[in-house]
Amino acid sequence: QVQLVESGGGLVQAGGSLRLSCAASGRTFSMYTMGWFRQAPGKEREFVAAISRNERSTLYARSVQGRFTISRENAKNTLSLQMNSLKPEDTAVYYCASNSRPFAAWSQVVGDYDVWGQGTQVTVSS
User: Fold this and answer.
1) What is the pLDDT along the chain (126 residues), one digit of tens a residue?
2) CA distance linking residue 18 with residue 31, whole number of Å
3) What's the angle, vertex CA 56, arms to CA 12 and CA 95, rounded to 5?
4) Is 69 in contact with 61 (CB distance < 8 Å)?
5) Is the dihedral of CA 60, 66, 68, 73 positive or negative?
6) Cβ–Cβ < 8 Å for 115, 99
């Protein structure tokens, strides 16, 4: 059974930092592009960042470019999101996700991902 488990969320003041982690199991991790998404109350789930299978190429939403860094360690089946200079508008539930197709290019589209973690809450106070 394919499973993704996030950790690392919490409450932080504006300007602070948090690091999210995602542990993957049940699928050959290195074959799939991975992504982070977030969903704020009353809003649709939105793309945050994605990373290629070989750990080298990344893509970010404009709203987080320069503040967030996505990374992965294929040897450990883990995905991470380092979040710096956090803003109140970053408050949301954050999800890691695995692309549905092996060897696919990275994507910003929610529907291209078929396995999702349970989510972790990030709250940024002003």
Assistant:
1) 889 999 999 999 999 999 999 999 988 999 999 999 999 999 999 999 999 999 889 999 999 999 999 999 999 999 999 999 999 999 999 999 999 999 888 899 999 999 999 999 999 999
2) 27
3) 40
4) no
5) positive
6) no
Which residue do the tokens 């299978």 mark? 53
DSSP string, the chain: --EEEEE--EEEETT--EEEEEEEESS-GGGS-EEEEEE-TTS--EEEEEE-TTS--EEE-TTTTTTEEEEEEGGGTEEEEEE-S--GGG-EEEEEEEESSTTPPP---GGGEEEE---EEEEEE-
User: Could you tell me the two tokens for 77?
Assistant: 């089946």
